[in-house]
Design brief:
Keywords: Amino-acid biosynthesis, Aromatic amino acid biosynthesis, Cytoplasm, Transferase. By secondary structure, the protein is of the alpha/beta class. It is about 30% helix and about 25% strand. The longest helix is centred in the N-terminal third of the chain and has 14 residues, at about 95-110. Bound molecules: shikimate-3-phosphate (S3P) and phosphoenolpyruvate.
Length: about 425
Protein backbone atom coordinates (compact mmCIF):
# COMPACT_ATOMS: atom_id res chain seq x y z
CA UNK A 1 0.00 0.00 0.00
CA UNK A 2 1.36 3.45 -0.85
CA UNK A 3 1.41 5.82 2.09
CA UNK A 4 0.50 9.13 0.54
CA UNK A 5 1.20 11.31 3.54
CA UNK A 6 2.63 11.15 7.02
CA UNK A 7 1.27 13.22 9.90
CA UNK A 8 4.05 14.06 12.32
CA UNK A 9 2.83 14.88 15.80
CA UNK A 10 4.33 17.68 17.83
CA UNK A 11 7.37 16.43 19.74
CA UNK A 12 8.72 18.17 22.83
CA UNK A 13 12.29 18.05 21.62
CA UNK A 14 14.97 15.73 20.27
CA UNK A 15 17.76 13.74 21.85
CA UNK A 16 19.62 10.53 21.20
CA UNK A 17 21.92 9.10 18.64
CA UNK A 18 21.57 7.93 15.05
CA UNK A 19 23.74 5.58 13.04
CA UNK A 20 23.99 7.15 9.59
CA UNK A 21 23.43 5.30 6.33
CA UNK A 22 26.43 5.23 3.98
CA UNK A 23 27.32 8.28 1.94
CA UNK A 24 25.60 8.35 -1.44
CA UNK A 25 28.44 10.26 -3.07
CA UNK A 26 31.10 7.90 -1.75
CA UNK A 27 29.04 4.74 -2.40
CA UNK A 28 28.40 5.44 -6.06
CA UNK A 29 31.98 6.54 -6.73
CA UNK A 30 33.40 3.46 -5.03
CA UNK A 31 31.08 1.16 -6.98
CA UNK A 32 32.25 2.59 -10.29
CA UNK A 33 35.92 2.63 -9.28
CA UNK A 34 35.75 -0.94 -7.96
CA UNK A 35 34.04 -2.01 -11.18
CA UNK A 36 36.69 -0.39 -13.38
CA UNK A 37 39.66 -1.55 -11.29
CA UNK A 38 41.89 -4.59 -11.60
CA UNK A 39 41.13 -6.97 -8.75
CA UNK A 40 38.32 -7.64 -6.33
CA UNK A 41 37.15 -4.99 -3.84
CA UNK A 42 35.35 -5.62 -0.57
CA UNK A 43 33.11 -2.59 -0.01
CA UNK A 44 31.96 -2.12 3.58
CA UNK A 45 28.77 -0.32 4.66
CA UNK A 46 27.51 0.69 1.22
CA UNK A 47 24.41 2.86 1.19
CA UNK A 48 21.31 0.77 0.41
CA UNK A 49 18.91 3.17 -1.31
CA UNK A 50 17.35 3.95 -4.70
CA UNK A 51 20.44 5.84 -5.92
CA UNK A 52 22.84 2.98 -5.18
CA UNK A 53 20.43 0.29 -6.40
CA UNK A 54 20.29 1.89 -9.87
CA UNK A 55 24.10 2.03 -9.94
CA UNK A 56 24.42 -1.63 -8.90
CA UNK A 57 21.85 -2.72 -11.47
CA UNK A 58 23.56 -0.72 -14.24
CA UNK A 59 26.95 -2.25 -13.42
CA UNK A 60 25.42 -5.73 -13.53
CA UNK A 61 24.01 -4.98 -16.99
CA UNK A 62 27.48 -3.84 -18.09
CA UNK A 63 28.83 -7.24 -17.08
CA UNK A 64 30.34 -6.37 -13.71
CA UNK A 65 29.94 -9.17 -11.16
CA UNK A 66 29.15 -8.18 -7.61
CA UNK A 67 27.64 -9.96 -4.65
CA UNK A 68 26.13 -8.71 -1.44
CA UNK A 69 27.23 -10.48 1.72
CA UNK A 70 24.25 -11.97 3.60
CA UNK A 71 22.53 -9.75 6.17
CA UNK A 72 24.87 -6.83 5.67
CA UNK A 73 25.57 -3.78 3.54
CA UNK A 74 28.94 -5.21 2.54
CA UNK A 75 29.59 -6.09 -1.09
CA UNK A 76 32.27 -7.85 -3.13
CA UNK A 77 32.85 -6.23 -6.53
CA UNK A 78 34.92 -8.03 -9.17
CA UNK A 79 36.75 -5.36 -11.16
CA UNK A 80 36.85 -5.62 -14.94
CA UNK A 81 40.18 -3.83 -15.41
CA UNK A 82 38.89 -0.89 -17.44
CA UNK A 83 36.66 -2.57 -20.07
CA UNK A 84 32.99 -3.41 -19.53
CA UNK A 85 32.43 -7.02 -20.69
CA UNK A 86 28.92 -6.35 -22.08
CA UNK A 87 29.06 -4.18 -25.20
CA UNK A 88 25.35 -3.43 -25.58
CA UNK A 89 23.05 -2.47 -22.73
CA UNK A 90 20.16 -0.24 -21.76
CA UNK A 91 20.71 1.44 -18.42
CA UNK A 92 17.97 2.98 -16.28
CA UNK A 93 19.37 5.37 -13.69
CA UNK A 94 16.29 6.80 -11.98
CA UNK A 95 17.02 10.30 -10.70
CA UNK A 96 20.52 9.55 -9.45
CA UNK A 97 22.74 12.40 -10.67
CA UNK A 98 25.87 10.72 -9.31
CA UNK A 99 25.12 7.53 -11.24
CA UNK A 100 23.90 9.20 -14.42
CA UNK A 101 26.75 11.65 -14.86
CA UNK A 102 29.58 9.27 -13.97
CA UNK A 103 28.19 6.38 -16.03
CA UNK A 104 27.66 8.67 -19.04
CA UNK A 105 31.37 9.38 -19.13
CA UNK A 106 32.32 5.76 -18.37
CA UNK A 107 30.02 4.32 -21.05
CA UNK A 108 31.05 6.95 -23.59
CA UNK A 109 34.71 6.02 -23.19
CA UNK A 110 34.29 2.28 -22.60
CA UNK A 111 33.82 1.17 -26.19
CA UNK A 112 30.26 -0.13 -26.33
CA UNK A 113 26.76 0.77 -27.49
CA UNK A 114 24.61 1.86 -24.58
CA UNK A 115 21.51 3.89 -23.77
CA UNK A 116 21.11 5.79 -20.52
CA UNK A 117 17.66 6.84 -19.35
CA UNK A 118 16.09 8.05 -16.13
CA UNK A 119 12.84 9.26 -14.61
CA UNK A 120 11.15 12.26 -16.28
CA UNK A 121 12.86 14.70 -13.88
CA UNK A 122 16.29 13.26 -14.77
CA UNK A 123 15.45 14.10 -18.37
CA UNK A 124 15.06 17.75 -17.32
CA UNK A 125 18.42 17.88 -15.56
CA UNK A 126 21.12 19.31 -17.87
CA UNK A 127 24.01 17.19 -19.10
CA UNK A 128 25.16 19.14 -22.18
CA UNK A 129 28.41 20.35 -20.62
CA UNK A 130 29.48 16.77 -19.93
CA UNK A 131 28.48 15.56 -23.40
CA UNK A 132 30.44 18.43 -24.99
CA UNK A 133 33.45 17.46 -22.90
CA UNK A 134 33.52 13.72 -23.64
CA UNK A 135 33.04 14.43 -27.34
CA UNK A 136 36.42 16.21 -27.28
CA UNK A 137 38.14 12.93 -26.47
CA UNK A 138 36.37 11.10 -29.28
CA UNK A 139 33.11 9.96 -27.69
CA UNK A 140 30.17 9.32 -30.04
CA UNK A 141 27.19 10.41 -28.00
CA UNK A 142 23.69 11.46 -29.08
CA UNK A 143 20.65 12.96 -27.45
CA UNK A 144 17.56 10.76 -27.71
CA UNK A 145 15.25 13.55 -26.52
CA UNK A 146 16.01 17.26 -26.11
CA UNK A 147 19.49 18.54 -26.92
CA UNK A 148 21.48 19.02 -23.73
CA UNK A 149 19.44 16.52 -21.66
CA UNK A 150 19.09 12.79 -21.08
CA UNK A 151 18.18 10.24 -22.37
CA UNK A 152 21.43 9.50 -24.21
CA UNK A 153 22.83 6.95 -26.62
CA UNK A 154 26.54 6.26 -26.76
CA UNK A 155 28.50 4.30 -29.36
CA UNK A 156 32.08 3.08 -29.36
CA UNK A 157 34.63 5.85 -28.92
CA UNK A 158 36.68 6.81 -32.00
CA UNK A 159 40.42 7.24 -31.85
CA UNK A 160 40.38 10.75 -33.20
CA UNK A 161 39.95 12.47 -29.86
CA UNK A 162 42.61 14.60 -28.26
CA UNK A 163 44.16 14.62 -24.83
CA UNK A 164 42.97 18.04 -23.73
CA UNK A 165 39.37 18.35 -22.54
CA UNK A 166 37.60 21.52 -21.51
CA UNK A 167 34.56 21.18 -19.27
CA UNK A 168 32.26 23.80 -17.82
CA UNK A 169 31.89 23.53 -14.08
CA UNK A 170 29.30 26.14 -13.21
CA UNK A 171 26.12 24.04 -13.54
CA UNK A 172 27.19 20.85 -11.77
CA UNK A 173 30.50 19.55 -10.46
CA UNK A 174 29.33 16.06 -11.42
CA UNK A 175 30.47 16.68 -15.03
CA UNK A 176 34.06 17.20 -13.93
CA UNK A 177 33.76 14.26 -11.54
CA UNK A 178 32.45 12.00 -14.33
CA UNK A 179 35.24 13.04 -16.66
CA UNK A 180 37.98 12.58 -14.06
CA UNK A 181 36.72 9.15 -12.97
CA UNK A 182 36.65 7.88 -16.56
CA UNK A 183 39.66 9.66 -18.08
CA UNK A 184 41.95 6.69 -17.25
CA UNK A 185 39.86 4.52 -19.62
CA UNK A 186 41.43 6.37 -22.55
CA UNK A 187 44.84 4.84 -21.92
CA UNK A 188 46.67 8.13 -22.44
CA UNK A 189 47.43 11.09 -20.20
CA UNK A 190 44.49 13.47 -20.23
CA UNK A 191 44.49 17.12 -19.24
CA UNK A 192 41.14 18.43 -18.06
CA UNK A 193 40.61 22.19 -17.94
CA UNK A 194 37.64 23.74 -16.20
CA UNK A 195 36.00 26.65 -17.98
CA UNK A 196 34.53 29.33 -15.75
CA UNK A 197 33.90 28.84 -12.06
CA UNK A 198 33.62 25.40 -10.58
CA UNK A 199 30.72 24.93 -8.15
CA UNK A 200 30.36 22.36 -5.35
CA UNK A 201 34.15 21.93 -5.12
CA UNK A 202 34.22 19.58 -2.11
CA UNK A 203 32.57 16.89 -4.25
CA UNK A 204 35.51 17.01 -6.64
CA UNK A 205 37.78 16.54 -3.64
CA UNK A 206 35.87 13.34 -2.81
CA UNK A 207 36.46 12.20 -6.39
CA UNK A 208 40.21 12.87 -6.29
CA UNK A 209 40.53 11.28 -2.87
CA UNK A 210 38.82 8.06 -3.94
CA UNK A 211 40.69 7.87 -7.27
CA UNK A 212 43.86 7.94 -5.21
CA UNK A 213 42.59 5.09 -3.02
CA UNK A 214 42.24 3.13 -6.28
CA UNK A 215 45.82 3.96 -7.29
CA UNK A 216 45.46 6.96 -9.62
CA UNK A 217 46.84 10.26 -8.45
CA UNK A 218 45.60 13.31 -10.33
CA UNK A 219 47.87 16.37 -10.37
CA UNK A 220 46.01 19.62 -10.24
CA UNK A 221 46.67 23.33 -10.59
CA UNK A 222 44.06 24.99 -8.40
CA UNK A 223 40.56 24.20 -9.62
CA UNK A 224 41.37 25.01 -13.24
CA UNK A 225 43.59 22.21 -14.53
CA UNK A 226 43.73 18.49 -13.74
CA UNK A 227 46.25 16.03 -15.19
CA UNK A 228 45.08 12.42 -15.15
CA UNK A 229 47.90 9.93 -15.82
CA UNK A 230 47.58 6.94 -18.15
CA UNK A 231 47.07 4.11 -15.68
CA UNK A 232 44.60 1.40 -14.64
CA UNK A 233 42.73 1.55 -11.36
CA UNK A 234 43.91 -1.04 -8.83
CA UNK A 235 41.61 -2.38 -6.14
CA UNK A 236 42.61 -1.28 -2.64
CA UNK A 237 41.41 -4.71 -1.42
CA UNK A 238 38.86 -3.40 0.99
CA UNK A 239 37.30 0.02 1.50
CA UNK A 240 34.87 1.47 4.03
CA UNK A 241 32.07 3.87 3.11
CA UNK A 242 31.65 6.78 5.55
CA UNK A 243 28.24 7.70 6.91
CA UNK A 244 26.44 10.31 4.81
CA UNK A 245 27.26 13.87 5.90
CA UNK A 246 24.24 15.36 4.11
CA UNK A 247 21.96 12.90 5.94
CA UNK A 248 23.76 13.91 9.14
CA UNK A 249 22.56 17.49 8.67
CA UNK A 250 18.96 16.55 9.57
CA UNK A 251 19.92 15.10 12.91
CA UNK A 252 22.40 17.82 13.78
CA UNK A 253 19.66 20.32 13.00
CA UNK A 254 17.33 18.21 15.19
CA UNK A 255 19.77 18.74 18.06
CA UNK A 256 19.48 22.50 17.59
CA UNK A 257 15.73 22.68 16.97
CA UNK A 258 14.83 20.10 19.64
CA UNK A 259 17.52 21.23 22.15
CA UNK A 260 19.45 17.94 21.91
CA UNK A 261 21.94 16.59 22.36
CA UNK A 262 21.67 14.55 19.18
CA UNK A 263 24.67 12.59 17.97
CA UNK A 264 25.28 11.17 14.50
CA UNK A 265 27.59 8.19 14.17
CA UNK A 266 29.49 7.37 11.01
CA UNK A 267 31.11 10.70 10.13
CA UNK A 268 33.47 12.77 12.19
CA UNK A 269 36.47 15.00 12.28
CA UNK A 270 38.34 13.33 9.40
CA UNK A 271 35.49 12.96 6.97
CA UNK A 272 36.26 13.46 3.26
CA UNK A 273 32.76 14.92 2.69
CA UNK A 274 32.36 18.66 2.36
CA UNK A 275 28.91 18.56 3.95
CA UNK A 276 30.45 18.08 7.40
CA UNK A 277 31.02 21.83 7.18
CA UNK A 278 27.29 22.20 7.78
CA UNK A 279 28.32 21.91 11.44
CA UNK A 280 30.26 25.20 11.12
CA UNK A 281 27.11 26.95 9.91
CA UNK A 282 25.15 25.49 12.82
CA UNK A 283 27.79 26.76 15.24
CA UNK A 284 27.56 30.23 13.66
CA UNK A 285 23.81 30.09 14.34
CA UNK A 286 24.61 29.52 18.00
CA UNK A 287 24.36 25.74 18.41
CA UNK A 288 27.03 23.82 20.33
CA UNK A 289 28.89 21.25 18.26
CA UNK A 290 31.14 18.42 19.40
CA UNK A 291 33.33 16.37 17.05
CA UNK A 292 34.83 12.94 17.57
CA UNK A 293 36.76 10.66 15.24
CA UNK A 294 33.55 9.05 14.03
CA UNK A 295 30.73 11.18 15.39
CA UNK A 296 29.36 14.71 15.52
CA UNK A 297 26.97 16.01 18.16
CA UNK A 298 24.77 19.07 18.36
CA UNK A 299 22.80 20.72 21.16
CA UNK A 300 21.21 24.12 21.55
CA UNK A 301 23.10 24.82 24.77
CA UNK A 302 22.17 27.93 26.76
CA UNK A 303 20.83 29.83 23.75
CA UNK A 304 17.07 29.64 23.43
CA UNK A 305 17.01 30.93 19.86
CA UNK A 306 19.30 30.49 16.90
CA UNK A 307 20.96 33.47 15.21
CA UNK A 308 20.02 34.33 11.66
CA UNK A 309 22.72 33.60 9.11
CA UNK A 310 24.09 35.06 5.90
CA UNK A 311 26.03 32.39 4.10
CA UNK A 312 27.49 31.61 0.70
CA UNK A 313 26.42 27.95 0.47
CA UNK A 314 28.16 26.95 -2.74
CA UNK A 315 30.39 24.45 -0.90
CA UNK A 316 27.45 22.67 0.81
CA UNK A 317 24.59 22.71 -1.71
CA UNK A 318 22.72 19.73 -0.21
CA UNK A 319 23.11 20.43 3.51
CA UNK A 320 22.27 24.09 2.85
CA UNK A 321 18.62 23.08 2.42
CA UNK A 322 18.62 22.14 6.10
CA UNK A 323 19.76 25.69 6.93
CA UNK A 324 16.61 26.98 5.25
CA UNK A 325 14.59 25.08 7.87
CA UNK A 326 16.79 26.24 10.74
CA UNK A 327 16.04 29.78 9.54
CA UNK A 328 12.48 29.25 10.83
CA UNK A 329 13.88 29.18 14.36
CA UNK A 330 16.31 32.10 14.03
CA UNK A 331 16.10 35.61 15.39
CA UNK A 332 16.01 37.48 12.08
CA UNK A 333 16.34 37.08 8.33
CA UNK A 334 18.57 34.33 6.99
CA UNK A 335 20.07 34.63 3.50
CA UNK A 336 21.49 31.60 1.71
CA UNK A 337 23.36 32.65 -1.42
CA UNK A 338 25.22 31.16 -4.40
CA UNK A 339 22.77 28.26 -4.67
CA UNK A 340 21.77 28.48 -8.35
CA UNK A 341 22.40 24.72 -8.67
CA UNK A 342 19.34 24.11 -6.45
CA UNK A 343 17.21 24.88 -9.49
CA UNK A 344 18.45 21.86 -11.47
CA UNK A 345 18.43 19.14 -8.84
CA UNK A 346 15.61 16.73 -7.85
CA UNK A 347 13.23 19.63 -8.30
CA UNK A 348 13.66 23.41 -8.51
CA UNK A 349 14.64 23.53 -4.86
CA UNK A 350 14.62 27.33 -4.53
CA UNK A 351 11.02 27.51 -5.78
CA UNK A 352 9.93 24.44 -3.79
CA UNK A 353 11.52 25.68 -0.56
CA UNK A 354 9.98 29.13 -0.95
CA UNK A 355 6.48 27.74 -1.60
CA UNK A 356 6.54 25.30 1.32
CA UNK A 357 8.19 27.66 3.83
CA UNK A 358 5.39 30.14 3.12
CA UNK A 359 2.86 27.47 4.16
CA UNK A 360 4.42 27.69 7.63
CA UNK A 361 4.00 31.47 7.71
CA UNK A 362 7.55 32.50 6.75
CA UNK A 363 8.20 35.52 4.56
CA UNK A 364 10.41 34.33 1.73
CA UNK A 365 12.19 36.14 -1.05
CA UNK A 366 13.77 34.12 -3.84
CA UNK A 367 16.18 35.11 -6.60
CA UNK A 368 17.97 33.25 -9.35
CA UNK A 369 20.62 32.05 -6.92
CA UNK A 370 19.51 32.92 -3.40
CA UNK A 371 16.75 32.55 -0.84
CA UNK A 372 15.94 34.90 2.04
CA UNK A 373 13.82 33.64 4.91
CA UNK A 374 12.18 35.61 7.71
CA UNK A 375 10.34 33.44 10.25
CA UNK A 376 6.86 34.27 11.52
CA UNK A 377 6.24 34.97 15.22
CA UNK A 378 4.46 31.59 15.38
CA UNK A 379 4.72 28.78 12.86
CA UNK A 380 1.45 27.62 11.30
CA UNK A 381 0.47 24.15 12.56
CA UNK A 382 -0.63 21.15 10.47
CA UNK A 383 0.61 22.54 7.15
CA UNK A 384 0.52 19.92 4.37
CA UNK A 385 3.98 20.02 2.82
CA UNK A 386 4.48 18.93 -0.79
CA UNK A 387 7.82 17.22 -1.35
CA UNK A 388 8.18 17.27 -5.17
CA UNK A 389 9.70 13.76 -5.21
CA UNK A 390 12.69 15.31 -3.46
CA UNK A 391 14.04 13.35 -0.50
CA UNK A 392 15.61 16.47 0.99
CA UNK A 393 12.34 18.41 0.98
CA UNK A 394 10.73 15.62 3.03
CA UNK A 395 13.59 15.27 5.50
CA UNK A 396 14.02 19.02 5.93
CA UNK A 397 10.38 19.82 6.69
CA UNK A 398 9.96 16.86 9.04
CA UNK A 399 12.26 18.67 11.49
CA UNK A 400 9.61 21.26 12.28
CA UNK A 401 7.73 18.62 14.30
CA UNK A 402 10.62 18.51 16.77
CA UNK A 403 9.85 22.09 17.77
CA UNK A 404 6.33 21.14 18.83
CA UNK A 405 4.71 22.07 15.51
CA UNK A 406 2.65 19.24 13.97
CA UNK A 407 3.13 18.93 10.22
CA UNK A 408 1.97 16.72 7.33
CA UNK A 409 4.55 15.42 4.86
CA UNK A 410 3.16 14.37 1.49
CA UNK A 411 4.77 11.40 -0.32
CA UNK A 412 7.14 10.52 2.54
CA UNK A 413 8.57 7.54 0.60
CA UNK A 414 10.65 9.90 -1.52
CA UNK A 415 13.31 9.65 1.22
CA UNK A 416 14.22 6.27 -0.32
CA UNK A 417 16.51 8.07 -2.76
CA UNK A 418 19.20 8.28 -0.10
CA UNK A 419 17.77 7.36 3.32
CA UNK A 420 15.13 4.59 3.40
CA UNK A 421 15.32 4.33 7.22
CA UNK A 422 14.76 8.04 7.76
CA UNK A 423 11.33 7.96 9.39
CA UNK A 424 12.40 5.37 11.97
CA UNK A 425 15.56 7.33 12.70
CA UNK A 426 13.53 10.51 13.18
CA UNK A 427 11.09 8.76 15.52
CA UNK A 428 14.04 7.44 17.54
CA UNK A 429 15.25 10.95 18.44
CA UNK A 430 11.84 12.62 18.90
CA UNK A 431 11.18 13.24 22.59
O1 LIG B 1 29.26 14.59 -6.86
C1 LIG B 1 28.38 14.35 -6.02
O2 LIG B 1 28.35 13.29 -5.38
C2 LIG B 1 27.33 15.37 -5.79
C3 LIG B 1 27.53 16.67 -6.19
C4 LIG B 1 26.55 17.74 -5.91
O3 LIG B 1 25.94 18.11 -7.13
P1 LIG B 1 26.37 19.41 -7.99
O4 LIG B 1 27.80 19.30 -8.32
O5 LIG B 1 25.48 19.28 -9.18
O6 LIG B 1 26.07 20.61 -7.14
C5 LIG B 1 25.48 17.30 -4.91
O7 LIG B 1 24.41 18.21 -4.93
C6 LIG B 1 24.98 15.92 -5.19
O8 LIG B 1 24.00 15.52 -4.28
C7 LIG B 1 26.10 14.92 -5.10
C1 LIG C 1 21.31 16.64 -5.76
C2 LIG C 1 21.23 15.44 -5.21
O1 LIG C 1 21.38 14.27 -5.86
P1 LIG C 1 21.96 13.82 -7.27
O2 LIG C 1 22.48 15.03 -8.00
O3 LIG C 1 23.02 12.84 -6.96
O4 LIG C 1 20.79 13.20 -7.98
C3 LIG C 1 20.95 15.28 -3.75
O5 LIG C 1 21.09 14.15 -3.24
O6 LIG C 1 20.60 16.25 -3.09
Amino acid sequence: MTVEFLDLAAARGARGSVKLPGSKSISNRILLLAALAKGTTEVKALLDSDDTQVMLEALKRLGVNWTRHPNSDDYRVEGVGGVFPVKEADLFLGNAGTAFRSLTAACALAGGHYTLTGVPRMHERPIGDLVDAVRQVGADIRYLGSTGFPPLEVRPVSDTGGSLVRVRGNVSSQYLTGLLLSAPLLGREVVVEVEGDLISKPYVEITLNLMKRFGIEVKREGWQRFIVPAATYQSPGSIQVEGDASSASYFLAAGAIGHGPVRVEGVGRNSIQGDVRFAEALARMGAEIGFGPNWIECRLGCADKLHALELDCNHIPDAAMTLAILALFADGTTTLSNIASWRVKETDRIAAMATELRKLGAVVEEGADYIKITPPARLIENAAIDTYDDHRMAMCFSLVSLAGVPIRINDPKCVNKTFPGYWDALASVAA
